[in-house]
Amino acid sequence: MRWKTLLALGLAVSTATNCYAATLIRSATVANGRDAETSLADVRIDGDRIVAVGVLTPQKGDVVVDGRGLVLAPGFIDTHSHHDEKLGEHLDATQLLAQGVTTVVFGQDGGSEFPVAKLFAEREAHPAAVNIASYSGHGTLRGEVLGSDYKREATPAEVDRMRALLDADMRAGALGLSTGLEYDPAIYSSHAEVLALASEAAKFGGRYISHMRSEDRELWAALDELITIGRETGMPVQVSHAKLGMTDWWGQADRYLAKLDAARAEGIDASLDIYPYPYWQSTLTVLWPERDFDNRATAEFVLGHLAPPEGLLISADSGDASHVGKTVAQIAAERGEDPVTTVISLIRAARAKDGDISVIGTSMDEGDIAKLIAWPHANISSDGAFEDLHPRGAGPFAKILRVYVREKKLLSLGEAIRKMSSLAARHMGIADRGEIRVGAIADLVLFDPDAIRDNATTENPGAVATGMRRVWVNGVLSFVDGKATGERPGRVVRRGHSTPWPAAGKRSD
């Protein structure tokens, strides 16, 4: 019987109301998500809400959970996720829950379900164990309007058609506009086009999040463009998966953050999200901004300044699947040729089959990553996915707690949790989540701070994190000691802010 299983997991069911009984978590170290402080406290959940925090007495019918020696925190919010690609096959979301992630934000890098209402309807009909939210993707809208004729600037009429599609997504509850300006078809868009669409999202109180035009050669101009959008629209703007992805820029994280600090001093709500790995994953062709794939000089620059041959690990190859798991350096050695020749031929072979190559590229400096993570306005994200070769799909939130809190002591426990909960919620405009307080939604995680650790690597990218004891999503116990309970209480989280953003200089906050 299902009720016997639930009782065995410590989740009682009221026979009178057929509802979940109240849960009292006692004597936990509570990190409220709002600040860096922690305190010993009890927390009671009733229904989908936190109803009491403090020194509490068990009531008749309470399910009592012993939190001694454990940390109770708000559920973590992954503000940049690609787990939507396989979520329908992983509705229990064990990979996410094991890290403490209770909400994932989709529609990233300019790519979203079309229309966003379709995604929301699917997840409401078939809920997952985690909550989902989504941006409307500029690249998706551009593809719908321009089709295969996208290698040019859009006409004013085409921009208007994109605005109409964006309006529908915003009315459905999209958080705002996302862009992936290094990718086709958005790489061909003008600043005016992007600004027009961002302004449209701003009318609905939406936000702007961007994989910028460049994370390497033209990094500083790309950052200026994002800040300009914030200045001209008054809306919050966020850098996706922030990085200095070129060796020439290593050690310049202070310059990067100074630009964002200056923007904030001007009244622009600029922020970033970041994952704790020195390697990214994307298409190999994204490193050729001119799309001149046979250009040896470009290939030499890529391998000399962006990612070395031994730092380009093939994760998918339309030209030859046997290359997966090998580096460009290894393939070049097998062929007895120089890496520049190899990388050009790999791209040529994949494109001949109307495909591409995905790579995990090592391009970042650990010192820069640490500085970006520590910035007060940086929240944590994954940029991860299910069934992927990059460990960021299964490990980043646990890695923050292991490496940057426990080992390096770069962040206090409370500050790390703030970056993964309330700050992430604020950056996304998500209300009633990300904090432990009376009235907040009961997305909660209970973990052992001395044992929490990431286990995912490029050799075993799906290895789930350990040390997470319990996870509640909307008040429902969804994960216990390494296993999902089978409950799927996740909800669609729609945009919370609904009025237009005022001009940047006129905001009162």
From TrEMBL:
Keyword Hydrolase: yes
Region entry Disordered, spans: 488-509
UniProt KW Oxidoreductase keyword: no
Keywords from the named record: Hydrolase, Signal
SUPFAM superfamilies membership: Composite domain of metallo-dependent hydrolases (SSF51338), Metallo-dependent hydrolases (SSF51556)
Annotated GO MF terms: N-acetylglucosamine-6-phosphate deacetylase activity
Coiled-coil features, chain-numbered ranges: none
CDD domains per the UniProt record, alphabetical: D-aminoacylase
One BP term from GO: N-acetylglucosamine catabolic process
Residue span(s) of domain Amidohydrolase: 64-271, 403-477
Lineage: superkingdom: Bacteria
Signal sequence, start to end: 1-21
Cross-referenced Pfam families: Amidohydro_3
The family this protein is said to belong to: Belongs to the metallo-dependent hydrolases superfamily. NagA family.
The protein's name: Aminoacylase
Natural source organism: Sphingopyxis macrogoltabida (Sphingomonas macrogoltabidus)
Lineage: Bacteria, Pseudomonadati, Pseudomonadota, Alphaproteobacteria, Sphingomonadales
